[in-house]
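Why do we bother with holo predictions? Because pocket geometry can differ from the apo form. Keep that in mind while you read this record for zinc ion.
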Amino acid sequence: MLKTAAYAAFDPRSPLKPWNFERKDPGARDVQIEILYCGVCHSDIHQVRDEWGGSIYPMVPGHEIVGRVIKAGASVKKFKEGDLAGVGCMVDSCRECDACRDGEEQYCEGGGAVLTYNARYRDGTPTYGGYSTTIVVDETFVLKVSNKLNLPAVAPLLCAGITTYSPMKHWKVSKGQRVGVVGLGGLGHMALKFAHAFGANVTQFSTSPGKEADAKKLGADEVVITRDPENLKKLAGKFDFLIDTVSAPHDINAYLALLRRNGTLVQVGAPEKPLPVTVFSLIMGRRSFAGSAIGGIRETQEMLDYCAEHNIVSDIEMIPIQQINTAYERMLRNDVKYRFVIDIASLK
Ligand code: NAP
Ligand code: ZN
Ligand code: ZN
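The structure, written out:
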């Protein structure tokens, strides 16, 4: 067994604190990774605080993991000792259902994908995530990471990156389209970068006036501060595609009204409460309100390769793990530019 140092949550209300546990030794198909950096996703907060229900404690959050391979099992083909590697939100799936065969393991119909933390492996033992010193994962679910990019800034691509890249590919965001990004946090700033890179004309919607200049630097052609509803009304019917990354309840109808005929609003932000939809927001203009979850392993690799080629990374603030509870508080005040990344050296 592998001694692993970590930070864990023990119930929905207490701060995270140090915890030691053991991981299984790598098997023939496994890769053992020394974790170097782990991004902090708002999903970590939702799950630590049991906002989605069913949380498993102790919980070691973290699904934006990058590090170095320290051991590769006998039949591992993609990795050797010393390689950079990444792990995102999934560590296994059934591999047999239609979704898995299509490379969309996040939608696995054979019992669901095994998530990197707050879940159970097929043998029932809990999974523990990246706020820890090491992780052991079947190579099928391990991503190759380029050494051309700033490594800590790559970590958030494993969730914030793929979650915004995947729906834009699915709905074919492209040059000449008018695209809107709602919420400028971890997911939002990656959505902005990708929409801009795909050639769309991009509008950032934000509740935070202080983020306007940053949004422009990150690729927005226009920034709309949404505190005044009049600012939205002026844009009715103008957008081909909207991606909503907001982590809290908000009025979705105000955004559906911004879509053109046949336009789509894809919800990736996952507030704990329902977002009521007025049917006329959809009926008028044959609009679609859709959702999307992360992305499959094949597409995650495609996204990482695309980022290496186009020099795209996350804008990060690095923290030692001892500051994780303060980082959560700051995220809840929308005070993060634009992703916290934990320097795992602080755990050793
Ligand atoms: P984050 O960094 O905290 O950003 C969320 C942003 O939403 C904030 O920065 C803020 O942007 C805006 N916001 C927050 N509260 C708001 C409110 N009450 N009204 C309007 N806007 C508000 O979070 P994140 O890590 O990007 O995650 C965003 C959401 O996506 C979370 O719910 C997370 O669980 C979910 N998620 C889903 C998937 C998926 O597969 N679908 C994957 C990862 C994460 P402004 O300051 O610009 O307004
Ligand atoms: Zn995430
Ligand atoms: Zn499956």
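The radius of gyration is 20 Å.
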